Amino acid sequence: MDQLRQSLLEAPIIEKGDYEYFVHPVSDGVPVLRPELLREIVIKIIRKVEVDNVDKIVTPAAMGIHISTAVSLMTDIPLVVIRKRQYGLEGEVSLSQQTGYAENEMYINDVRDGERVLVLDDVLSTGGTMRAVLDALDQIGAEVVDTVAVIKKAGPNELDESDHDVKTLINVRVTDGTVVIVDSNGDG
Q1: At residue 28, what are phi and psi to the nearest 5 degrees?
Q2: What is residue 127's DSSP assignment?
Q3: Fewer CB within 10 Å, N side or C side of the chain?
Q4: Per-residue pLDDT tens for 63-73?
């Protein structure tokens, strides 16, 4: 993952309260997301998961959408986006998302009991978003075949004590305003 690794090493760091936050095209849409970086990420995801056993890809809005769309296009697996807007459609399930810097209500539609899903997201940091998504999918009765976050920010997160294993492409930590690569192969 040379391009992903290099782009993370070059990522600017900002502070949101006590939280050191790296600004990256995968997680923030800035700086510009180069097609070769997106292609590298998508190929790595497809190699890391068993897409043959997946009925739908599920991703939370907003920054997982571009990655999940590209994976959907390459695999012909339909995509479900978990949104921050409620529509009140039949079967809509609400979930509360809490991250290191925000709290939101989100909504999922079009996932049914027994469907096999691949959950994709951009970053696993506190685990708040992923935990809420996985809990909602459990509530629906979906079978989570695999869960992937492109980047994992090393440290404790809400999924450490859960039954869900999250595969990642690269693991980093932010130390003194700099991104440090902890594991260039990620988890799983």
Answers
A1: -135, -15
A2: S
A3: C
A4: 999 999 999 99
At position 25, the amino acid (one-letter code) is P
Kindly tell me the sign of the dihedral angle through the C-alpha atoms of 149, 154, 155, 160. positive
Residue 79 in contact with residue 60, Cβ under 8 Å?
A: no
End-to-end CA distance of the chain: 15
Backbone dihedral angles phi then psi of residue 117, each to the nearest 5 degrees: -125, 150
Residue 76 φ/ψ region, left for φ over 0, alpha for ψ in the -120 to 50 degree band, beta for the rest: left
CB 151 within 8 A of CB 170: yes
Which tens digit of pLDDT belongs to each residue from 22-43?
A: 999 999 999 999 999 999 999 9
Which CB contacts under 8 angstroms, 24+ apart, belong to 167-173? Answer: 167/48, 167/49, 168/124, 169/1, 169/4, 169/41, 169/44, 169/45, 169/48, 170/1, 170/4, 170/5, 170/8, 172/8, 172/22
What's the token pair of residue 5? 């690794």
Q: Go through the chain and tell me how many residues it has.
A: 188
Which domains are seen in the chain, by residue range? 2-183 (3.40.50.2020)
Calculate the alpha carbon distances from 76 to 46, 58, 79, 172 in Å. Answer: 12, 14, 9, 31
